[in-house]
């Protein structure tokens, strides 16, 4: 299928018509939308902003996406799919829990570096009411990945009773938001402070998570004065 609507050009290109295949035009519109949503946020982004960024008319944009909600869902769906695939690779069964956490940290740093617009959108919307619901799948999958790493050895321990395993499951669920929250914060901080070597930022994130978990697993607690 070919999009026969001309792309807008500068005055020097007046009268030049460019026909673009449907799939390529849709990809162009999604790229423009990602940039606008990542920069402005969902609520401040209007369809005319996306159309202008893509260099097309708003009418053409509506031919591909009937609403801003549909457009946002398409954009976030692609982000969820990409990040989920990266996290799935990071938590491969052959890795130990510590190696898996390091791989997850690296995967998030990689994504933020390679897809800055996508990362900006995640940061703006991950925990926002209503709008953040579109990213809930990503949040849930991140949580499942972390919980799986924390419980990998426990689930394989035949000496644990069902009650002990259930207690470990509950504790892991409580730790999950602390874990992905700390990593996301570290990645965002590093993007704003590129003078800090990335390897150092990654190591700090891994040490903070793994050493903190080790102290919790050993039963250490902060007691009230």
Automatic annotation (TrEMBL):
The answer on whether this UniProt entry bears the keyword Transcription regulation reads yes
Q: Which domain of life is it from?
A: Bacteria
Q: Name one GO molecular function term.
A: transcription cis-regulatory region binding
Kindly indicate which segments of the sequence are annotated as binding DNA: 46-65
The biological process GO terms on file are: negative regulation of DNA-templated transcription
Keywords assigned: DNA-binding, Transcription, Transcription regulation
Taken from the record, one Pfam family name reads TetR_N
InterPro entries documented for this protein: Homeodomain-like_sf (IPR009057), HTH-type_TetR-like_transc_reg (IPR050109), HTH_TetR (IPR001647), Tet_transcr_reg_TetR-rel_C_sf (IPR036271)
Q: Which SUPFAM superfamilies does the UniProt record give?
A: Homeodomain-like, Tetracyclin repressor-like, C-terminal domain
Q: Ranges for the HTH tetR-type domain? A: 23-83
- What's the protein called, per UniProt? TetR family transcriptional regulator
Q: Which organism is it from?
A: Thermomonospora umbrina
């Amino acid at each position: 299928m070919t999009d026969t609507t001309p792309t807008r050009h500068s005055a020097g290109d007046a009268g030049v018509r460019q026909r673009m295949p449907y799939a390529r035009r849709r990809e162009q519109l999604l790229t423009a939308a990602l940039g606008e949503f990542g920069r402005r946020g969902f609520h401040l982004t209007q369809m005319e902003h996306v159309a202008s960024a893509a260099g097309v008319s708003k009418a053409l944009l509506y031919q591909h996406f009937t609403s801003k909600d549909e457009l946002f869902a398409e954009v976030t769906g692609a982000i969820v799919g990409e990040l989920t695939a990266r996290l799935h690779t990071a938590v491969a069964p052959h890795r130990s829990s510590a190696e898996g956490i390091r791989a997850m940290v690296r995967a998030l740093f990689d994504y933020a570096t390679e897809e800055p617009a996508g990362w900006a959108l995640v940061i703006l919307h991950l925990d926002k009411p209503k709008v953040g619901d579109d990213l809930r799948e990503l949040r849930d999958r991140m949580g499942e990945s972390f919980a799986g790493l924390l419980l990998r050895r426990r689930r394989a321990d035949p000496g644990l009773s069902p009650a002990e395993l259930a207690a470990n499951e509950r504790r892991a669920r409580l730790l999950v938001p602390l874990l992905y929250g700390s990593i996301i914060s570290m990645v965002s901080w590093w993007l704003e402070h590129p003078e800090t070597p990335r390897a150092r930022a990654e190591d700090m994130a891994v040490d903070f998570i793994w050493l903190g978990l080790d102290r919790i697993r050993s039963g250490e607690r902060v007691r009230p004065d």
